[in-house]
Design brief:
Blueprint (H helix, E strand, L loop, with lengths): L1 H26 L3 E8 L7 H18 L7 E8 L6 H8 L3 H10 L3 E6 L3 H14 L3 E3 L16 E3 L7 H13 L3 E7 L8 H15 L7 E7 L8 H10 L2 E5 L2 H13 L8 E4 L20 H8 L2
Parallel strand pairs: 1-2, 1-3, 3-4, 4-5, 6-7, 6-8, 8-9
Helix pairs in contact: 3-5, 6-7, 9-10
Length: 305
């Protein structure tokens, strides 16, 4: 019994001293957070995300002063306008010099934090691998980033799961034994912020497609609703190729395409349309059939939106 009391007392001392030990360790630990921003994309550009990170660290220091006492925030910013994710990846290369300068003159432990899109994060991931520096991303969701051989130091916490989405799509194909599919991917150049999601959704879907060519027959078509509003050629081709059609575009464009499909007699139950988008969020617009333009009844009664 005495031995048990001794063990319990020792455990209590450890528990009581743990907060003090934590404060001691954290106080002696210096953390450098290098945030990287590219351009002024409305979703992940500097003006959209930079103030949030700065405010978050300030609030954290007020709430937990002992934990964040030795945490400093450094900013690397490459200016630009409403650039696309692909163009941002090219410009991300130009930030390597500034990041290297920070890493060479700072003491303590350094990490890179970014709210950039996936292709920009992939460039940072390649750079960080060579420097053995951790990269944390709050937005990148490309499945290629999960390749730990190429990106051993990159961790992403994107809200959109681009890995499960195509997996669910192929599970649906197997469930109904669909083997011939058409994918229509919209570049959406008129939405330089929103199009990052759709481009990534299409890229990840086709990445898995490339590994399933012996099992499925795919017809892939790319178009840009920012350059054309006539969707009849794309849908007419899809009509002759398959009866399962995947639309990866903005909800507003999707509505127009379904009205075109109605005009082509593709909404009579012979064809299946799958929407490659996510549920409603403020930045991506509502997924709805009702716009009050005199065509709502067609969508509701015939298309079944």
């Amino acid at each position: 019994m005495g031995g048990q009391q001794s063990v319990l007392l020792s455990g209590a001392r450890v528990m009581l001293s743990w907060p003090a030990w934590t404060r001691l360790c954290v106080a002696a630990f210096k953390l450098n957070v290098i945030t990287v921003y590219i351009g002024q994309n409305p979703l992940y550009g500097y003006l959209s995300t930079g103030p949030a990170y700065m405010t978050a660290l300030q609030e954290a220091k007020l709430l937990y002063p002992e934990v964040y006492r030795n945490v400093t925030l450094h900013t690397v910013y490459y200016p630009g306008g409403l650039i696309s994710c692909a163009d941002g990846a090219v410009q991300t290369v130009l930030t390597a010099g500034s990041i290297t300068e920070y890493l060479s003159r700072m003491t303590g432990f350094s990490v890179i934090y970014t709210g950039s899109c996936s292709t920009e994060t992939m460039v940072l991931g390649d750079f960080a691998r060579e420097r053995n520096v951790p990269v944390f991303s709050s937005t990148a969701g490309d499945t290629r980033i999960t390749n730990k051989q190429r990106y051993p130091t990159t961790v992403t916490g994107a809200g959109t799961d681009h890995t499960s989405m195509p997996e669910g799509f192929f599970a649906l194909l197997d469930l109904f034994e669909w083997r011939t599919v058409t994918t229509l991917c919209d570049a959406l150049t008129q939405y330089p912020g929103l199009n990052a999601f759709h481009a990534l959704a299409c890229a990840n879907l086709r990445l898995i497609q490339s590994k399933q060519r012996t099992k499925y027959n795919f017809y892939d078509t790319d178009f840009d609703s920012g350059l054309t509003s006539d969707y009849r050629p794309f849908l007419s081709r899809a009509k002759t190729d398959s009866r399962v059609i995947v639309l990866i575009t903005h909800p507003r464009i999707m509505r127009e395409m379904m009205l075109t499909a109605h005009a082509l007699e593709m909404t009579n139950g012979e064809y299946v349309f799958l929407a490659g988008t996510i549920t409603r969020v403020p930045t991506r617009g509502p997924i709805t059939w009702k716009f009050g333009d005199g065509r709502d009844e067609v969508l509701f009664l015939d298309v079944g939106a």
